[in-house]
Automatic annotation (TrEMBL):
GO terms under cellular component: cytosol
Top-level taxonomy: Bacteria, Pseudomonadati, Pseudomonadota, Alphaproteobacteria, Micropepsales
Pathway: One-carbon metabolism; tetrahydrofolate interconversion
Assembly with partners or alone: Homodimer.
Keyword match NADP: yes
The name this protein goes by in its record: Bifunctional protein FolD
Catalytic function, reaction form: (6R)-5,10-methenyltetrahydrofolate + H2O = (6R)-10-formyltetrahydrofolate + H(+); (6R)-5,10-methylene-5,6,7,8-tetrahydrofolate + NADP(+) = (6R)-5,10-methenyltetrahydrofolate + NADPH
InterPro entries per record: Aminoacid_DH-like_N_sf, NAD(P)-bd_dom_sf, THF_DH/CycHdrlase, THF_DH/CycHdrlase_cat_dom, THF_DH/CycHdrlase_CS, THF_DH/CycHdrlase_NAD-bd_dom
GO molecular function: methenyltetrahydrofolate cyclohydrolase activity; methylenetetrahydrofolate dehydrogenase (NADP+) activity
């Protein structure tokens, strides 16, 4: 498929996600039939951020559509840190729960580190605990952060081996940039990480065969920053004014301009975002199998 008025082929995240969902559904059915295992996902949302509410609702709906057990805990914005930690501990101890997702960001009075230090790494399906981050760094990853994993799957399906390629990740968050760089390195790319202190970002971008943007600034990466023939992965999700009193979602890359020069590009929406929830389901299934003492799954 080709982007309108452009040379780049569109990386269809929705189609890839549908394929992965089908294989997760098949594996979940097998585990249920052979071992009576029903994966359980517990989500915790603190407060009433509308975007977070939508994300969490979609996660629960997707889990249910796969036949997983799905439990949601919605806590008031002024819940104490101690109460939240007590809930996490209770879910850690609940054998019917295999994955626990605490939706970030949390209100300022709650320390994210305290929550992550309490969460059982075996149930850390967002792979945010220091233990899982350390396993990834050591080349022994078990549960891997969902969005970076989705990006790697899209790259594999789109260009195959990335060994020796110049890969740039813009953004160094714990949630995306750092694990993404580790995964690209593990796939033998030559990896550069850029951030808000990077000098002459446009020039750094022009060297990248794979350009991954996770900045959180609408259409920040311009078309003439893209190396001709590069693969552009846009992780950003930004809601902007559509000009007609409505809003729309755009990425961190100026899509129309970038599609003129890239060989492959992810759209927003319909690119990376589509993979994230499915990778969360994959992690929940992997965690369930591991907690039940079953051999590692090949998904
Ligand atoms: P974040 O924690 O806010 O990190 C943003 C990163 O961008 C930081 O490392 C920051 O650098 C860097 N940055 C900011 N301004 C910059 C500039 N002018 N030049 C270069 N780098 C700059 O964000 P995040 O959680 O990683 O998310 C990033 C984006 O991805 C957001 O739009 C988010 O909504 C989206 N996202 C999407 C998904 C999905 O499922 N598709 C999942 C996760 C996130 P410093 O470290 O120097 O401050």
């Amino acid at each position: 498929m080709t982007a309108q008025n452009s040379k780049a082929s569109i990386i269809d995240g929705k189609a890839h996600a549908a394929k992965l969902k089908a294989s997760i559904a098949a594996e979940a059915a097998r585990l249920k039939a052979e071992h009576g295992l029903v994966p359980g996902l517990a989500t915790i949302l603190v407060g009433n951020d509308p975007a977070s509410e939508v994300y969490v609702r979609n996660k629960n709906k997707t889990a249910e559509s796969l036949g997983f057990k799905s439990v949601h805990h919605h806590l008031p914005a002024d819940v104490s840190e101690a109460e939240l930690l007590a809930l996490v501990k209770a879910l850690n101890a609940d054998p019917s729960v295999h994955g626990i997702l605490v939706q970030m960001p949390l209100p300022k009075h709650i320390r994210e580190e305290a929550v992550l230090d309490t969460l059982d790494p075996a149930k850390d399906v967002d792979a945010l605990t220091p233990y899982n981050a350390g396993l990834l760094l050591s080349g022994r990853a078990h549960l891997v952060s969902c969005t970076p994993m989705g990006v790697m799957m899209l790259l594999k399906e789109t260009i195959g081996s990335i060994a020796g390629m110049e890969a740039l990740v813009i953004g160094r968050s714990l949630l995306f940039g750092k694990p993404a760089a580790q995964l690209l390195l593990a796939a033998n790319a030559t990896v550069t990480m850029a951030h808000s202190r990077t000098k002459d970002l446009a020039e750094v971008c022009r060297r990248a065969d794979i350009l991954v943007a996770a900045i959180g600034k609408p259409e920040f990466v311009r078309g003439d920053w893209v190396k001709p023939g590069a693969t552009v992965i846009d992780v950003g999700i930004n809601r902007v004014d559509a000009g007609d009193g409505k809003s729309k979602l755009v990425g961190d890359v100026a899509y129309g301009e970038a599609a003129e020069r890239a060989a492959h590009i992810t759209p927003v929406p319909g690119g990376v975002g589509a993979m994230t929830i499915i990778c969360l389901m994959r992690n929940t299934l992997i965690a369930a199998a591991a907690l039940a003492g079953l051999p590692p799954l090949s998904l």
